[in-house]
Amino acid sequence: MTTTHPVPTTRFNGRALHLIDLENLAGGPAVDVDEIARTWAAYRGGVPQTESDHVMVGSCSLFARKAWWVLPATGVQRRVRDGADGGELSLLDDLDLEQTARRFQRLVIASGDGMFTETALRARALGMHVHHVTGHGRPARRLLAAVTTRSRLRLSTPAVSPVAA
Questions:
Q1: Do 63 and 149 contact (CB within 8 A), yes or no?
Q2: In sequence order, what DSSP letters do the residues of 14-40 get, joined into one string?
Q3: HSE of 17 in the Cβ direction (CA atoms, 13 Å)?
Q4: Distance of alpha carbon 57 from alpha carbon 111, whole angstroms
Q5: CB atoms within 10 A of CB 80
């Protein structure tokens, strides 16, 4: 008789909800499609994920027109909102952390924006492991202090499109 033992859940293999502010990671709405693709590839290759994770990507509509073509056709929930902090708010709108904590062991916040600080603190209070991912730019200090672990994507300097420059 063979006995199998379940793989223990660690801080990186439990089911996760990924909140990805791709615009923030890539360096802003004016970056070109190649930089968006490099950022997405760095995220997918550098951030631990399981098959049961749920991935949400938020941005403004200007960025979405370029970014949505880079993302895979399935497996990513796309959220769009315009206006100040549109990408961040598209991810945080309707987020029920109590329900999230019942379904996921981890919350991955992929943005340097301090707007995610309260979400990180509440998720930790609910027992979730909160992992923070940054790309270009410097993350908000209060967000860094609120998360359990953090990592930085290995990215080149963002290439700004000539039209936006």
A1: no
A2: S-EEEEE-HHHHHTSTTB-HHHHHHHH
A3: 19
A4: 11
A5: 18
> What pLDDT score was predicted for residue 5?
44
Residues 80/58, Cβ–Cβ less than 8 Å: yes
Tokens for 42? 């760095």
- Closest among 39, 12, 10 to 24, alpha carbons compared: 39
How large is the C-alpha radius of gyration of the chain?
16
As a whole number of angstroms, the distance between CA 120 and CA 151 comes to 15
The domain covering 16-152 belongs, at the CATH homologous superfamily level, to: 5'-nuclease (3.40.50.1010)
Average pLDDT over the chain, rounded to an integer = 88
| Closest to 151 measured CA to CA, from 64, 63, 66, 47 | 47
Task: Return d(Cα 31, Cα 73) in angstroms, integer.
Answer: 21
Length in residues, the chain: 165
Give domain limits for the chain. 16-152
Residue 153 contacts residue 43 (beta carbons within 8 Å):
yes
pLDDT tens string 61-79: 999 999 999 999 889 999 9
Q: What is the mean pLDDT of residues 104-128?
A: 97
Give the single-character DSSP code of 148. Answer: S
Would you give the distance in Å from CA 83 to the centre of its chain? 20
